[in-house]
Every structure is written in C-alpha cells, then in structure tokens.
Hints:
The chain is an alpha/beta fold. The chain has helices at 3-38, 43-64, 75-101, 108-135, 151-161, 178-186, 198-210, 221-225, 249-285, 333-340, 348-354, 367-376, 393-397, 404-417, 420-433, 443-447; strands spanning 139-145, 165-172, 190-194, 214-217, 229-234, 237-242, 290-296, 302-308, 358-360, 365-366, 389-391. The strands form four sheets. The protein has a four-stranded parallel sheet, sandwiched between helices.
Amino acid sequence: MNLIEEKDGLVSKSKKIINIYIVFLFAVVWFSYYNQFVFGTNRIAGGVVSVGIYFIIYNYFAKLYRAYKIGTYKISEIIFSQFLAIGLSDTVLYVECCLVSHHYVNILPGFATAGIQILGMVVWAVYTKQYFVRYIEANDTLIMYGGENAGEFVHKLKRKYEHLFRIQEIVNIEECTVEELHGKIDQYDTVILYEVSKGYRTSTMEYCIEHQKNLYITPRISDIILQGFKERTLIDTPLFKYEYHYLDTKEYRTKRMFDLTVSLLALVLTAVPMLLTAMAIKLEDRGPVFFKQDRCTANGKVFAIIKFRSMVPNAEKQGTVIPCTDHDPRITKVGGVIRRFRIDELPQIFNIIRGDMSVVGPRPERVEHVKRYCEEVPEFAYRMRVKGGLTGYAQIFGKYNTSAYDKLKLDLMYIENQSLLLDLKMIMLTVKTLFIAESTEGFEEEKSKLIGKWDAEG
C-alpha cells in the first residue's frame, strides 16, 4: 500500500467511525423519545426514514464544512466544523419534530444527546489527528516553479503542511532540460507545479500522469475562465462554448430576488445587534457611527460602501492608505470586538437592499486602486463583470494575508460557476468563517506589492 492509499484509508475509516457514532446516538434519542411525536402509525418505518434523513443532512454539512479533513485541518478547525455539522443536523430534525407535531417538544433529551455527540467527536478528532501526524509518512515532494519565485509558497507549505509534504527539492523548470526534469520527477512521490507556463506545464503534466505521480498545479487565469464554458458538439466535432452566465437576464433577476430576501431577513435578525453596536461606538468616543468609502462594483460603477466605524476618526490621514495589522493602535476597543466577528460589515445589508451590492460576490475595491490594478494585471477587470458582494470565495477560502493574485483567482472561480445553489453554499460557509480569526502574518510584506493594497478599514 502506497502513502496516498494509506492516507485515504485512514480518512475513510475515521469518517465511518464518526458517522456511526453520531448517527447511532441520534437514532437512540429519536426512537426513545422524539419519534412518537412525529409518527402516530408506522413508527418504526418512519423512524428509520428520519434517521436516514439525519444521516444525509449530517454528511452534507460535514462535507460542506470539510469536517473530515484530518490531514489538512488543525484539530480546532476539525472540531469546529464537526460542531457546526452536528448542531445544524440536530436542529433541523428537532424543528421538523416540532412542526409535524404542531407543538413545542422538550428540547432537553436532544440537547443532552448533542452534548454526548460533541464530546465523543472531540475525542475522535484529537486521537485521529494525532495518529495521522504520528504514523502517516509525508510524501517526498518536488516543487517546480516558473518565472515567479516560489519562496513564499514553500514557506506556507512547510509551516502548515509539513506533515503532508516533505519538500526534498525546489527547481526552476525553465533552467532544466527535459531529461533532467524527468529524472527529478522519477525520484519523488509528489510533484507540485507552481506558476509554470503552459508550454512547460503541459509536457510535465503528461509525464507525471503517465508515471502516476501525485500531481498538484496552481491554475492560471485562463484555466479558471475555462470553467465558464459548456460542452457542445458541432456535427462530430467537440466544442466548448462560453456561456456568459453573468449576463443572463433571468439569472440576474433570480439573484436580485435572492439578495433582497436574504438581506431583509438578515436585517430583521441583526436589527438589535446593530442598534447595540451603534450605541457602543457612539458612547466610546462620541465619533461617527458609520464609515463610508467609495468603491467600485459591476462595470466600474461607484457607490459608497457602509460599515460600522471600527477605528478612530480620520484613521487615514490626508487620504493616505495605511494597512491595518494586529494590535493596530487606531482600532478602538469596540472596533476590536466588531472586527473580530465581522459585525462592522453588517451595515452593508443596506447596500444590498439598495442594489449596490449582492450578498455573494467579489469584494468591491477602492476606486483609486481599480485603474492601477487593471493596468498591472489586466485580468483584474474580469472580477467587475458582476456586483461586489458582502461575502465570496476570497473571503471564505482565502486569508487576510492571501496574495491579491490568489484572491483574484478565487473571485473568478465564483464568477465562472455562479448559481443560486452556489450562493446558498457560500452563505452557509460564511457562518463558519465568522468564528475563525484571520491572520495578518506577512501582511506588511504583501502590502508593499501593488495588488496587495487594501483600505485601512479592511
């Protein structure tokens, strides 16, 4: 058994163990208490169906929140992902029980069972992760890079995934002959192609696939745009046709209705927290409650984005952009709390209602940066084919110090695959993101790059 099969086998076994544990406990409390309120007749068959539904819902949320990522997630992330999957699954079935029975059903048996589920899950997560790190060997890895140096990428890989990738060699693919490249590839289990040009990449990929290497590549902008094509056949010739999803009038109207529904519901749910936040900001320093700034959205349209003020008044002296870092003295006490839980972003609900923004989409960029970005990276204009959003791919899958070029790729991945179902998925993933602290490590260095500049309010 090779290393890949061994890792996959461990993940598969651990997934089965936690599934059996979680679903079994649910089945016990459902059959012993809740089932009687839902089914007057055919209780056994109805109970089995309910357990089956629970299994499907739990697995959906577990996959959505990547709760089985033993190898790549930290223990705390695995536990939190599982916590969300268990909590949401239990809640859905409890609400179903109350709705079907037409009255409030005692929540305590379910609450106690959820506690036991979570306790056992924590033990499972800690033991499985420790076993993985201790007994599963890392892959001997070769990194091949193109014109751009891979130093920062290698640093992140070593810091976060040293237990998965044992980096043995880093080579510039453009400085090696074909024979030298093939000789190097033959020595290692895993090959990572980092920002390699198409010519070198195609031939290297073919060789790696032919020799069944564990292969990773960083996509180029053109690769991501290809996701917007659909298969077509002209007589007997296969074709790809670009679909222009973001120009579809019907889909636009559907997305607008979705935005209004979600934003109005969010406004109702967050009205009290927003009122309390506004009062806290005003009481702390008597300054303005809101922070406004001109941003660009679809087709370069300019609008004023609204946030709760989290810094001292006039944090940007004479309009100079000063990146925000950890322990920034300009952040107020209230600001530190609301930034931690993204509460400062809530007033953008009004931007969505007015039609300036969508719930899901690329984050709208500062006006003074857009023209400059497009000159340096022409593909940047692609992200303004749709409205800016409150949340999106870059906010969910990226970090605060993710390079802006990688954030651009993430935003384009959303644009080329956008749909109502994807928007729903992004909203559910945002729930998890709200409780994960972002790192600003390496932020100052990134800020020195052109596309790495972001506004002081974040």
